[in-house]
Design a protein that fits this description.
The complex is a heterodimer of chains A (462) and B (412). Chain A is of the alpha/beta class and 462 residues long. Helix content of chain A is 26%, strand content 10%. Chain A has a 5-stranded mixed beta sheet with strand order 3-2-1-4-8, sandwiched between helices. A two-stranded antiparallel ribbon of chain A has the order 5-9. Chain A starts with a helix and ends in a 31-residue tail after the last helix. In chain A, 23% of the residues are buried. Chain B is α/β, with parallel strands linked by helices and 412 residues long. Chain B has 2 domains: 182 residues, Rossmann fold (3-Layer(aba) Sandwich); 195 residues, no CATH class. In chain B, β3, α7 and β4 form a beta-alpha-beta unit. The longest helix of chain B is centred in the N-terminal third of the chain and has 18 residues. The chains are: A alpha/beta (462), B alpha/beta (412). Chain A: It is found in: Golgi apparatus membrane.
């Protein structure tokens, strides 16, 4: 309670140091011998405290007058205060005020109490374990009361290919998926066939994975790349169909960042698709949250300035509708009897590879059957990052350099122990040959004078 | 004809089966006589007459300082407003069971917003003089069928310091009246036997604005925000909270299960909803708005205050909802809390999730069924009918009008 401030300013408790119960010292009018006596003791204690540096009165009175003080640990003596008559031992029951009715004495006493501190302050590890078990149990109960009723399996389709920083981006997706509290099946489609690197990486996740290889290599133009990715996704959907996987299909690229993944999964119940929004792409709804159209980025103003090749510096145009924005029930893809499947979805086997499929909308005959999730795409967000690199970028496999390299260059500033202390001028030109390996840098950088570039000694003999 | 009766029978059956459908959230009803009492409707069980006092006792005080509407003693003002427009109010005092005096004794605030109780005894005395001289009902029973709302620290003892409050005792003129107060401690001078304990006022809209979805997992084990040492008034410790808060700090400041500090975070309410246990230790007085906040946010209150009497103790089974820890057991608080069986904890959480409990702790504007106003009326209704002995014969006097400190006798 915040009554402290006004107490200080309006009622000086400290001035009233002779805080006493009625039983001990009723009145102060007149110099009665007891008050003089206490005054003298008070002054004496003050002086001694000043000299000694702690509240002498505490100690004296504690030892002299201790009655039924059991098990009392006090804080260490604080700074020298006014050695007032301590109320530490006022543990006698307080007499009640004048009251005509007979009242039992309260066993709770007003006055100073000791601060109880146990001698071994650390928590008992068994109790900590028990507390954590309690937390887990409470959270489980919460989930069963307020969470998803019957969670469906989530099937995530990720097209990928081996490249320099594949590990980085795939880790991001992998960790997001590992955090999903529901059953997960991760279908990774790899362009250029199945490689050991990707396989070993995926195996670390501990998720159920299906690793598919796709025979074509990832092309270097954005347009072809999108087309190939679409084909890879369709390939994955065909596998879903063959294996009759049940659940909700989501598309997660390794260039994506997801937020609100779990709320999307929670809401998915029927055989619908949804479109979370990016700042420029998304569903548009009318007031009753029904889908009425799509927001599409207008690419016309950028027609001349778009990037064609992967590592160009220009802006990359998004495709009309990102695949990752759609979620669908896997049963739509199954090769089931005709009357069970809704009529508005095209059969996957009838789709030809040459067809122009650029978004999941082409799979659907009737686009009005889509349902927007995440409050019309406002709550669930998906970010596309420009993280793709060329498929032919060079980098050491697994980022491990086993044998010493042919070219070693000493660092400019710190003299390394097994190299000459001066830096011969000739070595500066040698630096220009060693591009930093396996990065996305442009080839033009190598010719510049490496001013801010401390040549890195890339030997691993240590 | 036969078909029609069959159809109607089937319809009736369907209707009844649909209405008893399962609840979505498993909350537990506080079964037994205690729990059902929360949902009693006091209308028709009692009649309250509201005295007309001059506005210097109520409206003028509020005009002088509108902060009285938002601090934790605002219950007295809202109770007045509720009674003015409530169906239990009667304008005929002869048929009234209870009489209410609209006086705001706690509305004298310092610049920092804390109430000064020094003039309250004189204000109360002057109000009682007024009603006893203008209406015959006070003298009829010497106030035994009157009730007053005194939500200050130590109730009708009208002081914030416990020793001084005990010295004063309950105002002599209020000895026979029923007091509706927030303070409650067993065998204490300032708690009369027939008093009704109410929760302190906590702003309902402010709390409701901070709700988070209930599926966010509770990940804090014990939560507390507040002072442990009151360095302004009690620098050495030991007086404030009888040393209990300081003991909590010294013993558990390094314990990772205890999220305790003196911070004032903006996410205070949200954090309470992410905690399993919320500590509600005593301060200068045993009651605290933390109890209300804990109940509203579903956090199990851990009450560290010896002999405390909690709000509406005859209607709410606090033993089943909260955990009581004696002040001398504070060093073993972690052992106590971790040794509670899981089933007991889950049951307490289910009881707390019951919306009737949350409603009973709040003073919403406008009043809603089951809220604290109605619980107060229920409490008053439970004390009816009045015993015949409260009616004094002519000329008989029980109260001593000159008792009490000399300063109280000055006119206000």
């Amino acid at each position: 309670m915040k009554l402290s401030v006004f107490r200080l300013s309006y009622w000086n408790r400290r001035g009233n140091s002779f805080r006493s119960s009625p039983s001990l010292d009723p009145t102060f009018d007149g110099k009665s011998p007891s008050s003089v006596f206490w005054f003298v003791i008070h002054g004496l204690c003050c002086l001694i405290s000043l000299i000694l540096g702690f509240r002498f009165s505490h100690l004296v009175l504690f030892f002299l007058f201790s009655t039924s003080v059991t098990n009392l640990y006090t804080t260490p003596f604080l700074s020298a205060g006014n050695g007032g008559v301590s109320q530490l031992l006022r543990l006698k029951p307080l007499e009640t005020a004048t009251n005509s009715t007979v009242k039992k004495n309260s066993r709770v006493v007003v006055g100073r109490h000791g601060i109880r501190i146990r001698p071994w302050p650390h928590p008992n590890p068994i109790e900590v374990l028990r507390a954590h078990q309690l937390l887990v149990r409470v959270q489980k109960e919460q989930k069963s009361m307020y969470g998803v009723r019957s969670p469906k399996t989530v099937i995530v389709v990720t097209p990928t290919y081996v490249r320099t920083f594949q590990a980085l981006h795939l880790t991001g997706v992998m960790h997001s998926l590992m955090l999903v509290p529901y059953d997960l099946v991760w279908i990774v489609v790899e362009a250029g066939g199945i490689t050991n690197e990707t396989a070993s990486f995926i195996a670390k996740s501990g998720l159920k994975t299906i690793h598919l290889g796709f025979d074509q290599k990832m092309p270097n133009t954005w347009e072809d790349r999108h087309k190939l990715k679409t084909k890879m996704r369709l390939h994955a959907l065909r596998i879903v169909r063959e294996k009759k996987l049940d659940g909700i299909v989501m598309f997660a690229d390794d260039s994506n960042m997801h937020n609100e993944l779990s709320s999307v999964l929670k809401k998915e119940e029927g055989k619908r698709k949804e479109k979370p929004s990016m700042p420029i792409q998304g569903p548009s709804c009318n007031s009753s949250e029904k889908l009425v159209g799509w927001h599409i980025f207008n690419t016309q103003p950028y027609a001349k300035k778009t990037a064609v090749y992967i590592d160009e510096k220009a802006a990359v145009m998004p495709i009309k509708m990102e695949w990752s924005g759609f979620v669908l029930n896997s049963r739509l893809l199954w090769k089931e009897s005709v009357d069970e499947k809704p009529a508005w979805i095209k059969d996957l086997s009838l789709l030809d590879d040459n067809d122009e499929i650029d978004s999941p909308l082409s799979l659907v005959k009737d686009p009005s059957m889509l349902e927007p999730l995440g409050s019309c795409g406002r709550r669930v967000l998906l970010w596309w990052l420009r993280v793709e690199a060329r498929a032919d970028s060079k980098f050491p496999p697994g980022w491990i350099i086993k044998s010493p390299l042919e070219i070693t260059v000493p660092s400019k500033r710190t003299p390394w122990p097994d190299s000459s202390s001066e830096l011969p001028a000739a070595i500066k030109e040698a630096k220009s040959d060693t591009k930093p390996r396996g990065s996305n840098s442009k080839s033009s950088k190598g010719k510049q004078e490496p001013k801010a570039f401390n040549g890195v000694k890339v030997s691993t003999t240590s | 004809m036969k078909i029609r009766s069959c159809l109607s029978a089937i319809l009736l059956f369907l209707f009844f089966s649909a209405s008893s459908s399962e609840q979505n959230v498993r909350t537990e009803r506080i079964s037994g006589s205690a729990g059902d009492v929360l949902e009693d409707n006091p209308v028709g069980k009692l009649k309250v007459f509201v005295y007309e006092l001059p506005s210097k006792y109520n409206k003028k005080l509020l005009q002088k300082d509108p902060r009285c509407l938002t601090h934790m003693f605002a219950a007295e003002i809202f109770m007045h407003r509720f009674l003015l427009s409530s169906p239990v109010r009667t304008r005929n005092p002869d048929e009234a069971d209870w009489f209410y005096t609209p006086i705001y004794p706690t509305c004298d605030l310092t610049p920092t917003g804390l109430p000064l109780p020094f003039k309250s005894p004189r204000m109360m005395r002057s109000a009682i003089q007024l009603i006893s001289s203008n209406w015959p009902y006070w003298n009829r029973t010497e106030g035994a069928d009157h009730f007053f709302v005194v939500p200050h620290d130590f109730g009708a003892c009208f002081h914030y310091q416990e020793e001084k409050a005990i010295e004063r005792g309950i105002l002599p003129l209020l000895q026979r009246a029923t007091l509706v107060q927030t303070f409650g401690q067993r065998n204490h001078v300032c708690l009369d036997e027939g008093s009704i304990t109410i929760p302190p006022f906590a702003p309902p809209q402010k709390m409701q604005a901070h709700f988070i979805p209930p599926d966010i997992p509770r990940s804090i084990f014990v939560y507390f925000r507040g002072l442990f040492y009151d360095v302004n008034n009690d620098p050495e410790g030991g007086y404030y909270a009888r040393g209990a808060r300081a003991a909590v700090w010294e013993n558990f400041k390094n314990n990772p299960l205890f999220d305790i500090s003196t911070d004032h975070p903006t996410t205070y309410y949200e954090d309470m909803q992410r905690a399993i246990f919320c500590l509600c230790p005593l301060g200068w007085a045993p009651w605290s708005p933390r109890l209300v906040e804990a109940v509203v946010f579903g956090c199990i209150p851990v009450i560290i205050a010896d002999d405390i009497v909690l709000p509406f103790a005859d209607a709410i089974p606090w033993e089943e909802i909260g955990v009581f820890v004696a002040e001398k057991d504070v060093p073993e608080l972690d052992t106590i809390l971790t040794s509670i069986p899981t089933e007991v904890i889950l049951r307490k959480q289910r009881l707390l999730a019951n919306p009737s409990m949350k409603r009973a702790m709040l003073f919403p504007q406008p009043a809603q069924p089951g809220d604290a106003f109605h619980q107060i009326l229920n409490g008053l209704a439970r004390k009816l009918p009045h015993d015949k002995s409260i009616y004094l014969k002519a000329g008989e006097k029980e109260l001593n009008w000159t008792a009490g400190p000399v300063g109280d006798l000055k006119p206000w």
